Amino acid sequence: MKRFKSSNSKFYKCSKEVLWETISSPGYLNNVHPFCEDNSVIMWEKDQHEDQLVYLNGLTYQRKFTDWNINEGYDLWIGNDDQNQSFVEWRIEEEGGGTRLSINIYPYLLSTWPKSLAFLPYFLYINIKLKSYLYSVLSGIEWFIDKNTPVPKNKFGRHSWFS
Question: Does the predicted TM-score (pTM) go above 0.90?
Answer without folding.
Answer: yes
